[in-house]
Amino acid sequence: MNPVRTLILAAAGNDAVRRVVATAPVSRDVVRRFVAGETTADAIDAAGRLIGDGLRVTLDHLGEDTTDHDTAERTVRAYLELLDQLHAVGLAADAEVSVKLSAVGLHLGETLALDNASRVCAAAEQAGTTVTLDMEDHTTTDATLRVLAELRRHWPSVGAVLQAYLRRTLDDVRDLADTRVRLCKGAYAEPPSVAYTDPHEVDLNYVRCANALLAGSGYPMFATHDPRLIEIVGERARWYGKSVEDFEFQLLHGVRPGEQRHLAAEGHVVRVYVPYGDQWYGYLMRRLAERPANVAFFLRSLVTRS
Ligand SMILES: Cc1cc2nc3c(=O)[nH]c(=O)nc-3n(C[C@H](O)[C@H](O)[C@H](O)COP(=O)(O)OP(=O)(O)OC[C@H]3O[C@@H](n4cnc5c(N)ncnc54)[C@H](O)[C@@H]3O)c2cc1C
């Protein structure tokens, strides 16, 4: 992994850094680029605007690594309220939700995470949409895939996420290629024993996994902003005889918005990942780590403000 990226992800875990970043007023401005807002109403507004522009969305109530039952419960309720509102305003057909199992209690027990995720899936079904389980660091991969398998017994459309930087992923892709799978590069600091650390190797594995997904009968969701990968996926999809309804591209809120609209104008299904809520710290740090230019943007804002 790029050393700047490793450094930022390591600094993100430091309490002093967390206090400074999380409380600096300017953080709010930077956060706004990547996060739709703090409330359900903010999330619904952002979803409405993007859907109005011909895009689809997946909404993520920010929060992760929950260590107490109350926080897990509040997260579940936030999703239930969101799904209820999406249905009420008629957006549910173009909006799904993304859930991190650690936010709904995975670290408190797999059964709790499964119960809570089941409540969100049931509410999503009621609203007329579905759920994708975000993938977190490699220590949670097996537990996440076990919970996914349980959820799919009742809700087969629940989406999986697989990360191309993990050495195991091509095997996981082969197991899941006939289902709904989001393929991303992976956003966590992982050791070389489990993950490719050379970006070129990650890209090669992304293409291998993309081919395996396109060869399957499932619904692949290609989550990347990388122009080369987007082009290769488009070409490979044509080679496999896929039509534009057979797969989708996914990009993050605030990242390459022009490309989001360009792909949609070309006829592709494009889904924007829209995070909202006040627990934005971990999410922001991963976005900064992905691109040193974002750190420069952040630091410039600090200087300009002070
Ligand atoms: C819809 C979606 C869902 C995701 N879900 C997960 C998940 O569940 N688990 C997980 O581990 N990861 C997830 N990710 C993050 C993913 O793993 C990568 O960390 C992230 O997408 C950056 O990789 P990239 O493919 O865009 O390629 P990169 O090589 O990182 O970037 C390619 C180009 O895209 C642009 N770009 C990329 N990131 C940024 C940024 N932050 N700010 C500005 N420009 C940028 C730049 O132009 C860059 O040159 C998700 C990503 C997306 C788009």
From TrEMBL:
Q: Which EC class heads this enzyme's classification? A: oxidoreductase
Detail which positions bind FAD. 135, 163, 185-187, 224-225
One example GO MF annotation: nucleotide binding
Gene3D superfamilies according to UniProt: 3.20.20.220
GO annotation (BP), single: L-proline catabolic process to L-glutamate
The pathway this protein participates in, as annotated, is: Amino-acid degradation; L-proline degradation into L-glutamate; L-glutamate from L-proline: step 1/2
Keyword Cytoplasm listed: no
Pfam families linked: Pro_dh (PF01619)
Q: Which organism is it from?
A: Saccharothrix saharensis
Database matches in InterPro entries: FAD-linked_oxidoreductase-like (IPR029041), PRODH_bac_arc (IPR008219), Proline_DH_dom (IPR002872), Proline_oxidase (IPR015659)
Question: Which amino acids does the record list as binding substrate?
Answer: 100, 286-287
Q: Which cofactor does it need?
A: FAD
Q: What is this protein called?
A: proline dehydrogenase
Q: Domain of life of the organism in this record?
A: Bacteria
EC number of this enzyme: 1.5.5.2
The UniProt note on the cofactor reads as follows: Binds 1 FAD per subunit.
